[in-house]
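SUBJECT: protein chain
CONTENTS: sequence, structure tokens:
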Amino acid sequence: MKRLNDNVVIITGAASGMGRAMALLFSKQGAKVVASDINEESLSKVVKEIQDEGNQAIGIVCNVAKQEDVEHLIDQAIESFGKLDILVNNAGIMDNFLPAHEVDNDTWNRVFAVNTNSVMYSMRKAIPIFMKQGKGVILNIASAAGVVGARAGMAYTASKHAVVGMTKNAAFMYAKEGVRINAILPGGINTNIGTTMTNPSHFGYGKTMPGMELNPRFGESEEIARAALYLVSDEASFVNGALLAVDGGWMAY
């Protein structure tokens, strides 16, 4: 029996990096994948790759910063497959390492819209569905920056701290409703999230980079996907409200 057999899974930010790795792995484990991303061309390639392996997937273009897009994504998933079992909030952007005295309103609002508001929109939409059916799993991809202070700029750090708080709050509140909610805290992972930065702050970058020397190594997207598979599967049935660091020991120092 495959670990996600017949489960319908939504994954945001699925066109590349960790989202792509999760989409490919989950589909191989029997999931019907609803892959979403703002990049339609790359999203189509991921969906085709899954379908070419004989597995089920659809792609839905979605700007997670927009409430209406997120709600449409969940509605379309249910319309296409008849249900929703697992929601993975993976989409995210960086913040140019802007410290407090340099961060501008546009950056702050954009980072929170993608990294934090989107998680709230999707959880608010999905949880009543899960409550009605008596079960459901949410996995939020937070960050090491969600529990420590100097892995990025102020906006990114605050946005991921918020995701951690949302995860814990909702996990406890809905535990008796059959809903499990956990978060992964990736460390340094080889993805293209750096492309969301345009002009890193010299001050902020300089303050955070010394910590990179303590990083044992960078991880790969597939290593995050394997941890995610455990958390969304029934093997983690008693894991709720947990923060799983997948960082090679970086935060253990």
About this structure: The chain has a mean pLDDT of 96.
